[in-house]
Write a structure and sequence with these properties.
Elements: E1 7-13, H1 19-33, E2 40-47, H2 59-67, H3 83-86, E3 89-92, H4 95-104, E4 112-115, H5 135-155
Parallel strand pairs: 1-2, 1-3, 3-4
Length: 159
């Protein structure tokens, strides 16, 4: 896909307030740092559930990103069927998200749907939900999505 037009990437978790907005922010930041912004169209995130639609990211997720110099600017939304036609990659955080997305994905849509963690060179395929835990979970997630962001860029031939 690296040689085709702009690449659109959607990151997905359950509520779109912890993991997926962090992944969106880190990936967009990585793309900008590597001067690859011209290769990407839309970088966004969404949730499989509508619990938090319209809300800003969890303060712990936003704080973790900001502590690492990564800006966060997002309002939670739910995944739509159109997303599977708009985005080239729909990347989720755990197997429950994956099952939900595979059930939602319309036949014939263009999106590659998979675990974002599959791009982690350390092999941590599941990015666990830190919502009910402490700050350590958010730090762990940040490290995972940072590694997976570079792994994704390598896999599509941009690094």
């Amino acid at each position: 896909m690296a040689s085709e037009g702009p690449i659109n990437v959607l990151f997905v978790c359950l509520g779109n307030i912890c993991r997926s907005p962090m992944a969106e922010a880190v990936f967009a930041h990585t793309v900008k740092q590597k001067s690859l912004h011209d290769r990407f169209g839309t970088i966004d995130s969404a949730g499989t559930a509508s619990y938090h639609v319209g809300e800003t990211p969890d303060s712990r997720s936003a704080r973790t990103c900001k502590n690492h110099g990564v800006p966060v600017n997002h309002r939670a939304r739910r995944v739509t069927k159109e997303d599977f036609h708009t985005f080239d990659y729909v990347l989720c955080m755990d197997t429950s998200n994956l099952a939900d997305l595979q059930e939602m994905q319309p036949k014939g849509s263009k999106a590659t749907v998979k675990l974002f963690g599959e791009y982690d060179p350390q092999g941590e395929t599941i990015i666990r939900d830190p919502y009910y835990g402490g700050n350590d979970g958010f730090e762990r997630n940040f490290k995972q999505v940072t590694r997976a962001s570079e792994g994704l860029l390598r896999s599509i031939g941009l690094l």
